[in-house]
Specification:
The structure is a single chain. The protein is mainly beta. It has one domain: hypothetical protein yedk fold (Alpha-Beta Complex). Helices cover about 10% and strands about 30% of the residues. Strands 3, 4, 5, 6, 9, 10, 11 and 12 form an 8-stranded mixed β-sheet that branches. The protein has a 5-stranded antiparallel β-sheet with strand order 2-1-7-8-13, with no helix packed on it. The longest helix has 8 residues.
């Protein structure tokens, strides 16, 4: 099932430059490459800002403004494209707070529960993938502290991802980002990524634990690695994936995409 995602570029400023967004010096200095971004982790989103764009930090797991507490964010890490405009948790964000989530790959698990194998889906040239996202801010009632959060929009899987899982992130082409952020009919952009965009590479099973976040997760010489061809993968059904909750082990993990 789908697990976590990556952003392994050396400098956050490179992301900001490609998408034409401003970036604070403080945020640029705090950045480090991520090889195992997990739910509730802080990551980065691109959002409109007075006619321009800005790259800011946000927590993964959308918390709507009407939520009683932040814990609901654990359940709102993804939003299905088919229902995002109607679901109470997402419809306001879809209308007014669309964002882009920079990544350069995402993980899915495959194989039997006794030997789950993570696969890393990424562009062959490891280019940045611009994921369609939704953002929201939530204010802590007791302190007045404001929390910025986000969810990733998903679509049915394309032919590359489908042998492993039936959902995938909605990947935006660079020319379509302006329309997604602040243009007409954004729902039309929420389609499966073209088949040639992604390839699948086996990754280390160490990434089952969010404590591990290092380049060796993608190293084919990692002794923890056990290669399994994608086309022979034994996937779990979407119903099972959706019902399972997030946890340290892949077979207990909630579907992220």
């Amino acid at each position: 099932m789908c697990g976590r995602f990556t952003l392994t570029v050396a400098h956050l400023a490179d992301v900001a430059e490609v998408i034409g967004a401003t970036l604070s010096t403080e945020l640029a200095a705090m950045y480090r490459p991520r090889f195992n971004v997990a739910p509730t982790n802080r990551h980065y989103i691109v959002r409109p800002a007075g006619g321009s764009r800005e790259l800011v930090s946000a927590a993964w797991g959308l918390v709507p403004h009407f939520a009683k507490d932040r814990s609901i964010g654990h359940k709102l890490i993804n939003a299905r494209s088919e229902s995002v405009a109607e679901k109470p948790a997402f419809r306001v964000a879809f209308r007014t707070n669309r964002c882009v989530v920079p990544a350069d790959g995402f993980y899915e698990w495959t194989g039997p529960k006794s030997a789950r194998q993570p696969m890393w889906f990424h562009a062959e040239d490891r280019a940045i993938l611009w994921l369609a996202g939704l953002s929201a801010t939530w204010t802590e009632p007791s302190t007045g502290e404001v929390h910025r959060t986000f969810a990733i929009v998903t679509t049915p899987a394309n032919d590359v991802v489908r042998p492993v899982h039936d959902r995938m992130p909605a990947v935006l082409a660079l020319p379509d980002i302006a329309r997604w952020l602040d243009g007409p009919d954004p729902a039309a952009l929420l389609v499966p990524a073209r088949h040639a965009l992604l390839v699948a590479s086996p990754a280390s099973r160490r990434l089952n634990s969010p404590r591990h976040d290092d380049p060796q997760l993608l190293d084919p010489d990692d002794p923890w690695l056990r290669s399994v061809p994608v086309d022979s993968a034994q996937s779990e059904t979407a119903a099972v994936a959706s019902a399972q909750m997030d946890g340290a082990e892949p077979d207990r993990q909630r579907s992220l995409f």
